[in-house]
Amino acid sequence: MSAEEYLRLARVTVANTSDVIDKNNLLYNGGFSAGTRVFTRPGDYGKSTYLTALYDNILQVEGQAYVDNLLSRGWRVMDDPINPGTKLLYADNQYQQQLWKTGLSNNTNLTQRR
∠ CA 64-92-54 to the nearest 5 degrees? Predict the structure, then answer.
């Protein structure tokens, strides 16, 4: 599942659940990885645990150059599946590349001499 697919599934699921949970906290107060919150001070988004944000909010607080830098480094923008007309800014972690990329390994054979 890509980051965009995850965001669609997670946000729609929370919005439509009948469970007794605080949907507002999860969706709009940064209560989970697919949630957003409003940032008011430059630099706060960069310190956030979760990277999903409201595109217009980050653009307003951080500026166009900041957003352009994120986009050049792989961040993405998508329509919010539960709020038409709102865009989400998120980092695509490229999990498949992380999972399948070549790693370092080492084989060591030890023998005991007598």
Answer: 45
